[in-house]
Design a protein that fits this description.
TIM Barrel; binds fe (ii) ion; 11 helices; 3-stranded parallel β-sheet; 6-stranded parallel β-sheet; alpha/beta
Length: 279
């Protein structure tokens, strides 16, 4: 794989015409320009892959579209590496062999981005993806935005156990700013505090309010977590993953953890009273 120097977004709907991402190449180019503005040099294209629906692209179609999109961006003067991948919706009754040849790992790394059901019981599924017969190589599993799945939200132990079993976790940047509601924001902060998060990604859909972050939003992220943590989450760990290496969770300094507050959090009643008197 060609080495890139900048940030890497491992979850992005940037290929036109595949899913609810960009409708045409113009929207892809607009998103690509936003990426370059914040220093992203490489994006893993992850169109939805939901079995039994019209969103079931073949690996070869995604690979061809990634190459075509990268070339079109280049022609438009935007130099952005596009690697092929998929956001794979895990079938609720899936068995451990579901990661067959019909799925693409992220940039051919051997790590699969899995979107777990938002609501249903997933304990068995997680056991399936994190356990293998002795001698059988485990596929790398990255949970897409677990902070948005209610069972990860409702029981903190679920993600903890899955990560202990070898699963990696990718949190959406917008979750930290309340873009997916208070519950997802709270869960995202809790997971970060507990050292259960390996990647931050945009999950950009290249349109509407789901564009890649602009420089102001990016600075806000750095202000929240610190530059080092953001580089780990968006450059070092993605690079390790794409090379098929082991990836460690993001560990935030104690001071950062103490200062982190989800959006809309105004402190306990005593803090609020103190704030009122200080105004
Ligand atoms: Fe996505």
């Amino acid at each position: 794989m060609k080495i890139v120097n900048g940030l890497i977004d491992i979850h992005s709907h940037i290929l036109p015409g595949f899913d609810d991402g960009p409708e045409d190449i113009e929207q892809s180019i607009e998103a690509a320009r936003r990426y370059k503005d914040i220093g992203v040099d490489c994006v893993v294209a992850t169109p939805h892959r939901i079995g039994g629906t019209r969103w079931s692209p073949s690996p070869s179609a995604v690979i061809a579209a990634a190459e075509k999109t990268e070339a079109a961006l280049n022609d438009a003067g935007v130099s952005l590496r596009i690697l092929p991948g998929m956001e794979i919706a895990y079938p609720e009754n899936g068995d451990e062999d579901f990661l067959s040849t019909q799925f693409l790992s992220l940039g051919h790394s051997g790590y699969f981005l899995i979107e777990f059901p938002f609501t249903s019981a997933i304990t068995d599924i997680i056991r399936n993806v994190t356990s293998r017969a002795p001698g059988k190589k485990k596929p790398g599993i990255i949970a897409a935005h677990p902070e948005r799945c209610s069972l990860f939200q409702d029981d903190g132990a679920t993600l903890r156990q899955a990560v202990a079993g070898g699963m990696l976790a990718q949190v959406n940047i917008d979750s930290l700013f309340g873009g997916f509601g208070a519950k997802a924001a709270q869960a995202a902060f809790d997971f970060l505090r507990q050292g259960l998060v390996h990647f931050l990604a945009t999950d950009s859909h290249a349109r509407g309010n789901r564009m890649p972050p602009d420089p102001k939003q990016w600075e806000r992220l750095i202000g929240l977590l610190g530059r080092e943590a953001v580089e780990t989450a968006c450059m070092i760990n993605p690079g390790r993953m794409l090379r098929g290496e082991k990836v460690a969770p993001i560990i935030l300094p104690d001071e950062t953890i103490r200062n982190m507050q989800p959006p809309g959090h105004h402190g306990n009643i005593m803090e609020r009273l103190i704030n009122i008197f200080n105004k």
